[in-house]
Amino acid sequence: MQRNIVGTALILLSVALLAGLIVPVKAQTDEIQQVRVTNFPDLQRIAGTVSVEGPVRHASFQRVHEIVVPPIEPTRTGQLIDGGIVAVDGFTAVVLSLRGQVQGRTGRSGAVGAILIPEEEEIVRVFEEEGQAQFPLEVSATLASGTSRSFASAPTQVMTAFPRYRVRLYNTSDRTVKASLYLYLTH
Fold first, then answer.
1. Which tens digit of pLDDT belongs to each residue from 98-141?
2. How confident is the model at residue 184 (pLDDT cuts 50, 70, 90)?
3. pLDDT single digits (tens) 8-62
4. Helices of type H across 52-102
5. Which pTM value belongs to this model?
6. Segments of the chain assigned to CATH 2.60.120.660
7. Distance between CA atoms of 80 and 37, rounded to whole angstroms?
8. DSSP tag of 72
């Protein structure tokens, strides 16, 4: 009996001590909080000042603006219109959207599209010389004959696999277009 009383007393004492150690934490606060930085082994050593200016961004927006794209089939890869190079380093996904205007009325239906090829010498060479797109990111918008001069694609979300992509544009309609490619980079 004496043992049960001592055991129960020890358990109650332990619970009381533990309850005293647990301090309620506010979920969110506007007050300045002290942050402690701990250095890891030499491989991950932190040196100098550590600071964060403003909120940490989880997305970025880029655009390739108003590129003139004459009629050219996407199979003529060496002659596609150059839209420059976009950097996506640090982001795991991108939402691609394409919009623009037709110069006049189209006489036949077609599509305007953007093909993003990884900015790697071998991959670009195979694309331009052999017409083979390796690891491409693509988006396109349909053009109907004789309808509105404006066009837009549905937003297309794709995973990135390279830090930089070369943008190439095509147009299978019978009229020149001005196209803009929008890239919303996310994690």
1. 999 998 877 788 999 999 999 999 999 999 899 999 999 999 99
2. very high
3. 766 766 766 566 655 555 555 667 777 776 666 666 666 777 777 777 778 999 9
4. none
5. 0.70
6. 59-186
7. 51
8. B
Cβ 134 vs Cβ 126: under 8 Å: yes
Q: Which residue has the tokens 């992509």?
A: 165
- For residue 127 the two structure tokens come to 């694309």
- Cβ-in-10-Å burial (0-12, 13-18, 19+) of 171 comes to buried
Closest by CA position to 86, among listed 107, 61, 105, 50: 61
What is the Cβ-side half-sphere exposure of residue 85, based on CA atoms within 13 angstroms? 9
**Going by CATH, does the domain composed of 59-186 fall within 2.60.120.660?**
yes
d(CA 150, CA 88): 28
- Cα(151)–Cα(157) distance, integer angstroms: 19
